[in-house]
């Protein structure tokens, strides 16, 4: 049996090596390492995949979130609603811009933003909502969109973990995550479903004016070189990463199918276990399984050590919710404020999930987990 990896990038690369190597060599030959044609080609191809008007590449997913929020022209002290059960980057950018994060609960089945909690958290200072499509699962966007429209609030979708996921509207429409709000943000960190071989990110939007503004912000606030119309940052996707991502974008749907197949295997084996709750795929969307995250009744940390002893990697995303992180204690949240989130942090564990998992590996992983609880 091959070694089990949390994410097996080496085997994935070997399957597409000729195309990747050629793409890299083409960039080297062109010597256009920043803002080359391949960057605009990738942006156009991703826009076509998402069926969205504009894609603005940038350096990483955290920058994507920050730049999207900068584009809203929010003022210090304005409130941004976001879940506490998320990677810290979601909250980090809010704090960096001197905005106030307002944490709300998540649905304990889907791990995504609870619309009822959003409605309760709105104040006259609320200017934006950042739903997080966590672990590859879409948030329930229809009620969130309705709330935002009712209160004239912008939505910035954190889609770092869910590229290719879909949301199903009640009227039958199926749309890709990140395309429903004012803007959607992506990370192309190597472990992501669409990952580069370094950092990378992007923002998408259907708003022409907003897109033009974001294009200025990512490039020092300039529309014309050396003429700076707004405060910006230096956040450009380099050509090498764009070339790699352009190749891998053509395989994304196949990668998603492989992840869903592995998830179905896990689901079937674990379905009768009283100690394990498998991930729920919400009826309103298509899960792309960036992570396969189970909830266990008890002994979560002991399980992780047991698996490590059997050379099975696992991860806990996330052991401490954002509202209890030392860096954000300033905002005055404390233990017990978000009990559902805090409970999830004590009971979730993510098992290996990637495109190269084979049946032998899956059997070994699932048998090991079940043996621990039997």
Poorly predicted parts: none
Tell me which CATH architecture of the largest domain applies here: 3-Layer(aba) Sandwich
Number of strands: 15
Proportion in β-strands: 15-25%
Distance between the termini: 24 Å
Main beta-sheet strand count, sense and barrel state = 7 strands, mixed
CATH top level class name of the largest domain: Alpha Beta
Oligomerization category of the chains in this entry? single chain
The total count of helices amounts to 13
CATH third-level topology of the largest domain: Aspartate Aminotransferase, domain 2
Fourth-tier CATH superfamily name of the largest domain: Type I PLP-dependent aspartate aminotransferase-like (Major domain)
Q: Into which percent range does the helicity of residues fall? A: 25-40%
Radius of gyration: 21 Å
- Widest β-sheet, arrangement of strands: 1-9-8-5-4-2-3
Rounded mean pLDDT score: 97
Shape: globular
Order of helices and strands: HHHEHEHEHEHEEEEEHEEHHEEEHHEH
Domain unit count = 2
């Amino acid at each position: 049996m091959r070694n089990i990896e949390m994410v097996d990038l080496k085997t994935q690369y070997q399957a597409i090596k000729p195309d990747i190597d050629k793409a890299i060599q083409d960039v080297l030959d062109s010597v256009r390492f920043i803002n080359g044609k391949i960057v605009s080609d990738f942006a156009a191809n991703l826009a076509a995949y998402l069926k969205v008007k504009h894609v603005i590449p940038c350096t990483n997913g955290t920058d994507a979130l920050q730049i999207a929020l900068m584009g809203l022209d929010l003022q210090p002290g304005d409130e941004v609603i976001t879940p506490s059960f998320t990677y810290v980057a979601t909250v980090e950018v809010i704090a960096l811009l001197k905005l106030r994060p307002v944490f709300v609960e998540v649905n304990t089945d889907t791990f995504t933003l609870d619309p009822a909690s959003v409605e309760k958290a709105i104040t006259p200072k609320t200017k934006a909502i950042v739903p997080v499509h966590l672990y590859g699962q879409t948030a329930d966007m229809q009620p969130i969109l309705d709330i935002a429209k009712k209160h004239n609030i912008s939505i910035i979708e954190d889609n770092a973990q869910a590229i290719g996921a879909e949301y199903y509207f009640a009227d039958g429409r199926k749309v890709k995550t990140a395309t429903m709000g004012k803007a959607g943000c992506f990370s192309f960190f190597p472990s992501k479903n669409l990952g580069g071989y370094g950092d990378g990110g992007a923002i998408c939007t259907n708003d022409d004016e907003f897109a033009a503004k974001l294009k200025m912000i990512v490039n020092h606030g300039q529309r014309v070189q050396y003429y700076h119309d707004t405060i910006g940052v230096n956040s450009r996707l380099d050509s090498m990463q764009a070339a790699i991502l352009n190749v891998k974008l053509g395989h994304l749907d196949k990668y998603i199918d492989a992840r869903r197949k592995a998830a179905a295997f896990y689901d079937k084996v674990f379905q009768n276990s009283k100690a394990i709750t498998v991930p729920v795929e919400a009826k309103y969307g298509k899960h792309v399984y960036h992570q396969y995250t189970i909830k266990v009744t008890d002994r979560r940390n002991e399980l992780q050590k047991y698996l490590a002893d059997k050379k099975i990697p696992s991860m806990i995303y996330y052991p401490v919710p954002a509202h209890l992180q030392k860096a954000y204690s300033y905002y005055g949240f404390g233990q017990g404020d978000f009990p559902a989130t805090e409970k999830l942090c004590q009971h979730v564990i993510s098992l290996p999930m990637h495109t190269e998992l084979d049946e032998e590996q899956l059997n070994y992983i699932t048998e090991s987990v079940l043996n621990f609880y039997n």
